[in-house]
């Protein structure tokens, strides 16, 4: 799927920012080396994804396109939080993603604008299941979702799979994403995610949006 051609056919794109929350990506909470450490926050900061996401979000806003923060936060004491995989168990054991807490809030370095949307879920490893995300996007007539944030190990492949199943076209802004390790990120980007999404970068996506805007004015 070519993003430019899709937009020129009248498709509307939305930027999805996955799990860029203080407990996940804020440098104050990221751990880091040794390099074999599976730490999404460390690798997100190594790759410098937060300022790139912020800049891309501004491009989407400038064209009146939806910017959606996709977050996960649990009730106090993790009531109703389904522990049905080892990652969910690790989230509960860490115990910091509590609704209303600083840790669950959107990364301090990512300004939230009045026009932005929030899709929060109580449990699950990908943003569409157990949330209002699909309904939000359909209300805005969105046909193409642009994925950013974390992680290329779990949430973003999950989001791509869910989005394709729901009929969306999917683009992934590679320079605005990170995985648990550089090796796992590269494997997903090279081997798996291209089966579901167009792999691009924030500069090319911004150029596509500008080109579609120019085409609309002709």
Describe what this molecule looks like in 3D.
The protein has helices at residues 3-8, 22-25, 40-47, 49-62, 86-94, 133-139, 155-165, 182-192, 202-217, and strands at 12-18, 67-72, 117-121, 142-150, 169-178, 198-200. The protein is an alpha/beta fold and 218 residues long. The chain has one domain: Rossmann fold (3-Layer(aba) Sandwich). It has a six-stranded parallel sheet, with helices on both faces. It is globular and about 55 Å long. The relative contact order is 0.20. The model has no long low-confidence stretch (mean pLDDT 90).
Q: Would you identify the CATH H-level superfamily?
A: Isochorismatase-like
Query: How many DSSP E strands?
Result: 6
Q: What portion of the residues fall into strands of 2 or more residues?
A: 15-25%
Helix content: 25-40%
**CATH-level-2 architecture:** 3-Layer(aba) Sandwich
Please give the CATH class. Alpha Beta
Structural class: alpha/beta
Strand adjacency order, main sheet: 3-2-1-4-5-6
Query: If you average the pLDDT, what whole number results?
Result: 90
The CATH topology name reads: Rossmann fold
Main beta sheet: 6 strands, parallel
CA-CA gap between termini: 23 Å
What is the general shape?
Answer: globular
**How many domains comprise the coordinates?**
1
Low-confidence stretches: none
- Put simply, the count of helices is 9
**Integer-rounded radius of gyration:** 17 Å
Order of helices and strands: HEHHHEHEHEHEHEH
């Amino acid at each position: 799927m070519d993003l430019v051609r899709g937009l020129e056919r009248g498709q509307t794109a939305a930027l999805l920012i996955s799990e860029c929350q203080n407990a996940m990506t804020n440098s104050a909470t990221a751990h880091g080396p040794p390099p074999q450490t599976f730490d999404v926050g460390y690798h997100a900061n190594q790759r410098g994804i937060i300022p790139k996401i912020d800049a891309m979000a501004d491009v989407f806003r400038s064209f009146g396109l939806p910017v959606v923060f996709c977050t996960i936060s649990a009730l106090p004491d993790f009531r109703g939080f389904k522990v049905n995989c080892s990652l969910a168990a690790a989230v509960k054991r860490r115990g910091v993603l509590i609704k209303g807490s600083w840790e669950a809030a959107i990364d301090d370095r990512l300004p939230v604008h009045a026009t932005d949307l929030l899709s929060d879920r109580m449990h699950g490893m990908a943003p569409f299941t157990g949330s209002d995300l699909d309904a939000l996007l359909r209300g805005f007539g969105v046909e193409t979702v642009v994925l950013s944030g974390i992680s290329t190990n779990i949430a973003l492949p999950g989001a791509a799979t869910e989005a394709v199943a729901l009929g969306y076209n999917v683009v992934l802004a590679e320079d605005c994403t990170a995985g648990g390790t550089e090796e796992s990120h590269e494997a997903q980007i090279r081997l798996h995610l291209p089966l579901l999404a167009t792999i691009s970068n924030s500069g090319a996506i911004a150029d596509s949006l500008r080109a579609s805007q120019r085409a609309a004015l002709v």
